[in-house]
Amino acid sequence: MANATPRVPSLFLKALKKSPWVFHVGTSGCNNCDIEIADCLTPRYDIERFGMKLAGSPRHADVMLITGPVSRACREPLQQAWLEMPRPRAAVMVGACACSMGAYKDAYSVTGPPDKVLLEVDPDARFVYVPGCPPKPETIIMGIVKLLGAL
Amino acid sequence: MSASTSNRTPGDRRVIQIGPFHPLLEEPVGFELTVEGEKVVHVDACMEYIHKGIERLAQERTYDMVPILLEKICGICSVTHSVCFCNAAEDLLQVEIPPRASYIRTIIGELERLHSHLLWVGLAGHFIGYNTVFMWAWKYREPVCDVFEMLTGHRQNSSLPIVGGVRRDIPESYFPEARRAMDRLDEQVEMLTAAVLDDPVLAARLKGIGVLTPQEVVDWGVVGPTARASGVDTDVRRDEPYAAYEELDWKVITTENGDVFDKAVVRLLEIRESISIIRQCLEKIPGGELNLGQQHIPRGEGIGRYEAPRGEDIHYLRSNGTNMPERLKVRAPSFTNVASFEVSCIGESIADVTITLAACDPCYSCTERTAVVRGVDGRPTHTFQDLVRLSQDKTRALAREMGREPGLNLL
């Protein structure tokens, strides 16, 4: 991931890589991915060992975990939450629906995969894709680690 | 809260917005709590964030593909919705599935109930700030997902059920390991149950909170563990048996008080029952066919019932003789349980409302079968009269289309 925002001092990026705080947004998925994300926090996987932490507000977060295709009602809240995140910021698309809308591709109430929705408001947005229905917690952790390696 | 309300006169109301993205909620859902000071006087749920139009998608899939699609209604109830659809199709066909298939459906259904209840116990602990319970319960949930993966190849979405049986076999070579996992889980859950039931802090925090009386349960159509905690003895597995439940020895758990504490007790005891059911199934599972082969679904209607971890799930299926459903209606258990917030939350303080909202284990992606795109007369909400009028208009339009006078005299 190229440094899309030259305004960000390299110290910020260095600090981010040491302990990324993640904000979880479920945009109308089936909540299976959301449960696997919560599973990452629990004793078997325990990503808090690596300094990763679920943040309560997008304003405190460095990385956004997005699950699910984006329904009509979720579209604006998702864009708003993304713009509230401070730079440098990145998103991980967790699950088949977030990557490519999965089974809901032809549904009438779904307005597009989240990467396209976010690119509308922020052309510099960068993403990592974690496919699977749902991806196992190990895979989600690997996705975040790959993101950090690419920063 | 007290500081900010000190300069307000009693009786002043304000609205607290929770969601759609909130750290307490796994899923996007909005709640508007109207409060007087600390006391909640009105609850409004804004439900359309997770509406995906899955019923419509099911009408464009063949009968073999629909159960896999329906697993995606809800991540936790994946077996629920696919088996419930198969129950509806088999009700339409009037067929019995092979015994091995019914045992396999029972095993995966109970494994799902196990991990769903453990997940709820953990989340309930998290909601009241008791994160030890959260970590414990989710740690014990992992072996259940492992067993599910050993038997079906996936942690939650098995894709096993099809109309007339199951798609694949579950490997018997893994049964000994599954039995050992159940034995370990039984001990762990026994310890967890004792720890939760004896904890004076939990009792002080949860007893007498969010009480539903048996009359309210009946009035609001509450189902599942939420109803059984109020002493209403209802369970589809016993009342209208499907799969292999008739041949197994188990009992329906009920308690009397109807508060959040009893809802936790019911779920913890049901976990023990589910473990016992799975053990019996692993012992008794017969050999033989897995499914009835390709089925032609004739014209007709079918209704499937299934006891989901959260209560009774109903699927209505209408077939026009083609290879795709003409209409599929899903009534998930949370749909009726969520409505009971209207009685269980009123009069409670804000701190108690979060756990009361969580107590019926609401699953919003099961529930949200509708989204308002364009309201009646430009208004964003539909009243009861609006809905009656809309459905009457639709009936009339359909009748005109079919060249019939509508035989309705409703207005």
Overview in brief:
The complex is a heterodimer of chains A (151) and B (411). With 151 residues, chain A is of the alpha/beta class.
What would you say this structure looks like, in words?
The complex is a heterodimer of chains A (151) and B (411). Chain A is 38% helix and 15% strand. The longest helix of chain A is centred in the last third of the chain and has 14 residues, at 137-150. With 151 residues, chain A is of the alpha/beta class. Chain A has one domain: Rossmann fold, CATH 3.40.50. In chain A, helix 3 crosses helix 5. Chain A has helices at 10-18, 32-39, 72-84, 96-100, 114-121, 137-150, and strands at 21-26, 53-54, 63-67, 90-94, 127-130. Chain B has 411 residues and is α+β, with helices and mostly antiparallel strands. Chain B has a domain at 54-340: Cytochrome-c3 Hydrogenase, chain B (Orthogonal Bundle). Chain B contains 17 helices and 8 strands. Chain B has helices spanning 2-5, 54-58, 66-70, 78-93, 99-127, 131-152, 175-198, 200-206, 214-219, 225-228, 236-239, 260-284, 333-339, 341-344, 350-359, 364-367, 384-401, and strands at residues 14-18, 30-36, 39-46, 161-162, 165-166, 300-308, 311-319, 325-331. In chain B, the strands form 3 sheets. Chain B has a 3-stranded antiparallel beta sheet, with no helix packed on it. The relative contact order of chain B is 0.16. Classes of the chains: A alpha/beta (151), B alpha+beta (411). The A-B interface holds A 25-36, 38-39, 42-44, 54-58, 68-69, 71-74, 77, 81, 102-104, 106-110, 133-134, 136 and B 20-21, 23, 26-28, 48-54, 56-57, 60, 69, 72-76, 78, 119, 122, 134-135, 138-139, 141-142, 155-157, 363-365, 371, 373.
